[in-house]
Write a structure and sequence with these properties.
TIM Barrel; eight-stranded parallel sheet; 10 helices; globular; binds (1E,3Z)-4-hydroxybuta-1,3-diene-1,2,4-tricarboxylic acid
Amino acid sequence: MTDFIKTPGWLDWYAGPSQPRFKLPAGSVDAHCHVFGPGAEFAYAPERKYTPCDASKHQLYALRDHLGFDKNVVVQATCHGADNKAMIDALLHSGGKARGVATVRRSVTDEEIQYMHDAGVRGVRFNFVKRLVDFTPKDELMEIAARIAHWGWHVVIYFEAVDLPELWDFFTKLPTTVVVDHMGRPDVSKPIDGPEFALFERFMTEHENVWSKVSCPERLSVTGPKALNGEQNAYQDVIPFARRIVERFSNRVLWGTDWPHPNLKDHMPDDGLLVDYITHIATTPELQKMLLVDNPTRLYWPELAKN
Ligand code: 0GY
């Protein structure tokens, strides 16, 4: 058994989250969350850039029930590298209520892909955030994308807004549905109508295969969780960005808690308040149902989607 020491300064996830006031629509999906280990059972990857606190499938599913979600999409986190065992174990113990996004290398075999598919994996994640991963050549990623396209999987991409120009040609050649993590991490201290966010909107406008998660205000916010003028204002600076993406691309947006919130050092969000935040970015019952139920069901459980 290996003992893993958590990265210094990294906060533990928030135990005892509040009960959200927003009652999630029936069938809501938490479309971005992780499991970490437990390290004694599923060792963290030698090449990891951080060591998390353990966050098990049991704890994830207890949070799902507490918040009122019906299902989860468990995204492979970088601390587990391309060893997808902990994520797959979570899917296999979900009673069909979790689907997954894996990290794979070029060496992955068709048998391994088939095994992951049968367990509920429906996508691969390509990560370009330099503090999280080492560089992988784009030809290797393109080869992986071409292979997983045969299973009907999609590609999840994670990058910083300043890197979009350099990655544009690669992203726009991907042969699958492409899901952007956290709106491409905009710098929300810059104007929403400035060139950086305009490029992201152009990316989504010109490429109808591109979807976006409108999650992680706690990562993007400069003003933070403080309710400056009452609770309505948590992560206020992120709201206009997320709301615009939800309203412009309402049939291609997803939302997730990002539990257990890797790599946060300043504050750890209360997941109940994060759920309440949804009502500020998806402001009508119709938009909320598309964001939380219809879109993730169509992408991850197409067999359940009505149209
Ligand atoms: C996220 C964000 C982060 C980390 C990871 O896989 C990961 O390590 O995704 C981050 O540090 O920004 O989406 O969970």
